[in-house]
From TrEMBL:
This is NRDE family protein. InterPro entries: TANGO2 (IPR008551). It comes from Paraburkholderia gardini.
C-alpha cells in the first residue's frame, strides 16, 4: 500500500471500531492476486503478491489485521533485501498467539528491521483492541496507537504530505459523530487523481516530474500506479462480536490482465466472535 488513512476507536462499545481506506500503488507489470480467501491459509483474507509471495493488506477470521507501505528512500534501495510483504503475511498466516500481541510482533520485526528496504507496518488484533505501528526508517520504537484518525503514505506515520492530509481530513469528516459511510464512498474518496501544487510537494530524492505524478491519491502513469483500493470497517455489534466488512476495487479481475482504471470489485463480510 502507498496511502492508508484510518480511524481507530479502541474504546468503542458499539459502532465502528476501525475504519480504513487504502490505495495499493505498484508497477503494472508486477503480478498479484486480488483480495480473496487464501486456499493454503484458511481464514486469511488478502491479496497476494505473486512475485514476492507476501501481501500488502489483510485480515483474518479471528480478527488479526496487518498492512504495509513502502518508505520512499530511492538512494537507500537494496535489490538484495528480503521482500517486505512477508512481514504482513507472517503475522496473518501464523497460528493465533504464536507471535504474541501486536506490539510483541512489531518488536520482533524491529530486531532485524534494518535488513529490509524502508517500510511502515501496521499490526492489529481487533479482539484485543490493539493496533500498533513501526517504521524501520524512524527513530521511534514500535508503539500502540491511541484513538484517532491517522494516515501513512511513503514516510512515517502522519507525515504531512498533501494527499495524506487531504484524505485523512476527508475520512475524519465521514466518520465524525458516529457516521457509518458506505465502503463504496470511501473507495470513491481514494480514487482522486488530482495533483498537489509544486509548492506543496515533498522532496524525496526523485525527479520533480515524478514527484508531481506521485502526489495524487490515485496514481496513473504508464508503468506504475494505483492497482487497487481497499475499504475496511470493523464494527462492534454486541457482546464480544465484531463485524468485518471489506471491499476491494482493482484493475485485475483475477486473470492478471490489467484494465486501467480498474472497476473489478469484491466484497466480503464475516464476524469475529469470542
Amino acid at each position: 500500500m502507498c496511502l492508508i488513512v484510518f480511524d481507530w476507536r479502541p474504546q468503542a462499545s458499539s459502532g465502528a471500531l476501525f475504519t480504513l481506506a487504502a490505495n495499493r500503488d505498484e508497477f503494472l507489470r508486477r503480478t498479484a492476486d486480488p483480495m480473496q480467501w487464501w486456499a493454503d491459509v484458511p481464514g486469511l483474507l488478502a491479496g497476494r503478491d505473486l512475485v514476492g509471495g507476501g501481501t500488502w493488506l489483510g485480515v483474518t477470521r479471528d480478527g488479526r489485521f496487518a498492512a504495509l507501505t513502502n518508505y520512499r528512500a530511492p538512494h537507500e534501495m537494496r535489490p538484495d533485501a528480503p521482500t517486505r510483504g512477508t512481514l504482513v503475511s507472517t503475522w496473518l498466516s501464523s497460528t493465533p498467539g504464536k507471535h504474541g500481541a501486536p506490539l510483541d510482533y512489531l518488536r520482533q520485526v524491529a530486531r532485524t528491521g534494518d535488513i529490509y528496504n524502508g517500510f511502515n507496518l501496521l499490526i492489529g488484533d481487533f479482539a484485543r483492541r490493539e493496533l500498533g505501528w513501526y517504521c524501520n526508517r524512524s527513530d521511534a520504537p514500535p508503539v500502540l496507537l491511541e484513538a484517532g484518525t491517522h494516515g501513512i503514505s511513503n514516510a512515517v506515520l502522519d507525515t504531512r504530505w498533501p494527499k495524506l492530509v487531504k484524505k485523512r481530513a476527508e475520512l475524519a469528516a465521514f466518520v465524525e459523530d458516529g457516521q457509518v459511510p458506505p465502503l463504496a464512498q470511501l473507495i470513491g474518496m481514494m480514487r482522486d487523481p488530482r495533483l498537489a501544487r509544486d509548492d506543496e510537494l515533498p522532496s524525496t530524492g526523485i525527479p520533480l516530474e515524478r514527484e508531481r505524478a506521485l502526489s495524487a491519491a490515485f496514481i496513473d502513469t504508464p508503468e506504475y500506479g494505483t492497482r487497487g483500493t481497499t475499504a475496511l470497517r470493523v464494527s462492534v455489534v454486541g457482546g464480544n462480536t465484531l463485524s468485518v466488512e471489506a471491499t476491494e476495487r482493482s484493475d485485475d479481475n483475477g486473470s492478471h490482465r490489467i484494465t486501467r482504471p480498474g472497476d473489478f470489485e469484491r466484497a466480503y463480510t464475516f464476524d469475529v466472535t469470542g
